[in-house]
Amino acid sequence: MTQQPTINELNQLSIAEETQLLNACPNTDSGDGSLRVLSWNILAQCLIKRDQFPYVSVAPNSPNPLSQKTRAPRICSVLGSLGFDAAALQEVDVDQWTAILSPSLVAAGFDVEHFRKNPEKKGGHGLAFVWRKDWCVVKTLTSTLTHALTASLESILRSFTSMSIP
Questions:
Q1: 13, 38, 134, 157: which could join 87 in a potential S-S bond, CB 3.0 to 4.6 Å?
Q2: Options 3.40.50.720, 3.40.47.10, 3.40.718.10, 3.60.10.10; CATH of 37-47+65-166
Q3: 141 or 151, which is more confident?
Q4: What is the pLDDT of residue 17?
């Protein structure tokens, strides 16, 4: 099995090397030419304020639907049911990502990357990008979270190509 290059190695490729790598990546899509992209603001656990959700009631002896213990498995369940090829998730709580979401997505056959909104701060939230494991990252571009997500997502998606790693 060939080891996929690291992001730093990919970013150092010349245009000719990048083109050669793109041409070497076989197409492994479903054959219908479709690309299923998901964008979802999952609302970071650290941003939930109970008074902002007065319509959410908790029945006696029932789990609180706003708690991480309840939300994280439901988010995983929804992600598992959507059949996407690539996803951009916003407001992803760092602790929830590390403990639950990332391991679940990796086990489901995806590669993942999380970017904290404020890397100097412990905890918090950020963006997560998820893509099929049989794809390879050809190039990454980093921008601040103040840029339009759609422009960043378009750049990232242009960098993907389907690939089977022998």
A1: 38
A2: 3.60.10.10
A3: 141
A4: 65
Q: Tell me if 85 sits within 8 A of 132, measured CB to CB.
A: yes
- Number of neighbouring beta carbons within 10 Å of residue 12: 10
CA distance 28 to 130: 17
Domains of the chain by residue range: 37-47+65-166
Provide the pLDDT confidence category of residue 40 given band limits of 50, 70 and 90.
Answer: very high
- With tokens 């951009």, the residue in question is 88
Quick one: how far is CA 149 from the chain centroid?
Answer: 13
